[in-house]
Every structure is written in structure tokens, then in C-alpha cells.
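Fill-in record for Peptidase M20 dimerisation domain-containing protein.
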Amino acid sequence: MADQVDAPALDEVVRFTSELIRIDTTNRGDGACRERPAAEYAAALLAEAGLEPALLERTPGRTNVVARVEGTDPGADALLVHGHLDVVPAEAADWRVHPFSGEVRDGVVWGRGAVDMKNMDAMILAVVRSWARTGTRPRRDLVIAFTADEEASAEDGSGFLADRHAGLFEGCTEGISESGAFTFHDGRGNQLYPIAAGERGTGWLKLTARGTAGHGSKVNKANAVSRLAAAVHRIGEHRWPVRLTPTVRAALVELAGIYGLEADPDAPGFDVDAFLEKLGPTAALVEPTVRNSANPTMLRSGYKVNVVPGEAVAYVDGRYLPGGEEEFRTTLDQLTGPDVDWEFHHQEVALQAPVDTPTFARMRAAVTEFAPEGRVVPYCMSGGTDAKQFSRLGIRGYGFSPLRTPEGFDYQALFHGVDERVPVEALHFGTRVLDRFLRTA
Ligand SMILES: [Zn+2]
């Protein structure tokens, strides 16, 4: 039994990333996406490694793949390792290479999904196939899941799996997936590796103001448009109070250590904004997750300048912290006032996973073994992933898709961005780290 991935795995991860990119799984949220060819591709590679993947669909063509790798310790909790198969749209005219070419040029794999997240799908496949060749088994059972529909509602993907196929995830207490363990260059020579241990919740709101419809030239004491405008203004101007969650507290303490700063998030009067100010670009890792937020994004009302409409509608993109939903609701009640109703147009839970656990320590150790210069920092994601759906099964989610990228390679800008690409070296690093973590987890 080898103690790390074999050489063929390093070739395979590049080939699989490229070939998965070539299978166009664009998800526009209109139901037209077909993940099935990508799912069949992944399932065939798993079957070659001696696993028994199940193909699961709620809607024809919207295919998910689930397989279990048996661990050596039957008493250990299982670990879910998941990646989505769909990608966001790409406009070929804007790109330097065709977004679905999967071209490998000068040591870089190009195309939609190169970092979000066919790279991770390929790394998972490369690792388990390497284990089959070398007779390696992980300690814990691993449940491998490749999902459909993450880039839209997840109703055909992780939501469907969690609701209808819970049995496949039996024993899973923790999960890993996208948006973590990537290189964050801070511009001062430090290389941070943020591992996600939480996600803000999503609260997309619909505001409805009602009033008295009438002629625009008459006195109107119940104008829906002005009522709505006032509420939207109050929401947009609201300064949400700082609420430090355990994940963010841990991040602040870790960052204080790295930068030689003082930070006691528990001390009365601790000024998080002043602290973030001192962090420079690194503040971006923490800033979106010290408060709830609510940004007005859409307005709809009226049809003629001399007619007062009876109704006016606005939409607001709200996000709340783990533990922050109740405060979010009561604050919205106050900000909208008696003349404007609000409701959740779409809602997703906030997540929080502990960072003082053996699993987190093993993720940290796996990263620093291959990136000794790296400084691991827990962080909370400002948006969401499939981990939200799997949390219904009691699975605590972490963002752990290891990639080491050079300075100047703006990894985060490539998420859903133009010219999405990933260096071959980054894939090799990720495969080694993932292998180390999964076999020791
Ligand atoms: Zn993603």
C-alpha cells in the first residue's frame, strides 16, 4: 500500500478535468440542463475502480451519482465527499479559448468548470482510482456524490438526494466540497488557505406595498410607490449590527496570530471594523460574514405617469449569519413598517461547522504537509453550496477543494468568470492533499 497517490493519478486528474469540461452541463436554471452524460462519465470511472455507483434522477437527464467506498474502521462515522456536475453559462465570444474545449495549454486547463468545480470532481475520481490500483482503503466510509442542479435550485440534485435517498448517506456526519483550501495571496507575501466552516443563509425577499389607486393629480394619502420607496430606503441604509459567530471568531484569532495583531473577539468593546482595517486585502475573507445584510435589487410598480398604482413591489437580496435568522426577521418587520408586507421569496438555511475538531485538524495538516508555507484559516462563506441541502441529514459541511495557485492567479475572480482555468500544478497539489486528507480522515 502506497502512502500517497500514484503517478497515473496525476495524469488522470488533468485528463478528467479536461474531459468533464468538454461535456457541456450549462445550467441556466430553466430546466434545460442535462447532467446525464457527465454523470455517466463519472460513474464509469468509479465502476472501473471497483465501486458500485448508483445513478439517480428526479427529472429525466438531471442525473446524480452516489457511490460508497468502504473504510477499514466499521465503527467510524462516514464522510460525504461531494461535487456538482453542472456549471454556470459561458459566453464563448468573451473567452480567449472556447469555454467547453477543455484545452490544456502551457500547463493550464481552460474552460467552464475548471475551478467550479469539475476540478474537484476530477480530483475525487483520480484519488479513488489510485486507491483501487494500490490497494488503499480509507479509515472511514466515504460516500462520493456527484450532483446535478447546484447552480440553480438543487431540487434535482442535492435537495432530491437528501429528501428521497437519505439511506445512501447513512452514517455520514461530515462532508467536504467546494470553496475552501485554495491559495489566498494577501499581497504581503503570506499564502493563506481558507477552509470554509459555515455559510450564511439566503433570504431573498419580496416586499409588497399597498395603497389607494387613483388619479395622479389628486391628493393621495396612501401612495403605494412612496410607501415602498421609504421601506426600500430604510433597508438599503440600515447598518446591521456586528454579530461574531464561532467560525468568524476563530478566523479573527487565527488572523491576529498571522499578522501579529491583538484580537480578543470576546473582549467588551472589541471593534471588528477597526481590526479588519488593519488586515488589508485579507479583510475580504471575513468582512461579508460579520453582519447580516440586505440589498434592495429590484423595483416594480406603475404603468402610467398620471396614474397612482394600488400596489408596488420590490425584491431584496438578504443574507443572514448562522444564528442570525430571528434577528433578520424582526429587523425586517421594523424596517418595512406597517404599510409594507414582506415575505421570503426564496430561503436557504445558514450553516456552521465546528473548527476545533479532529477533522478540521486533519484538513489543516493535509494542506500544510504539501504547502508548508501555507497558513490555514477557517472562514464562513457569504453565499451557499449543496452543503445546505445535505445539512438536512445532519451532515456538517466544510469547504475543502484544495488548490495551490501562484500569485497573480485570481482564483476567486474565475468563479463564474471569463477565461476560467486551472493550472495543472494546482490540480496535482489538490489531488495529493485530498488523498492525504481522505485516507486519514
Ligand atoms: Zn460551485
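KEY FINDING: Residues 12 and 234 are 54 Å apart (CA to CA).
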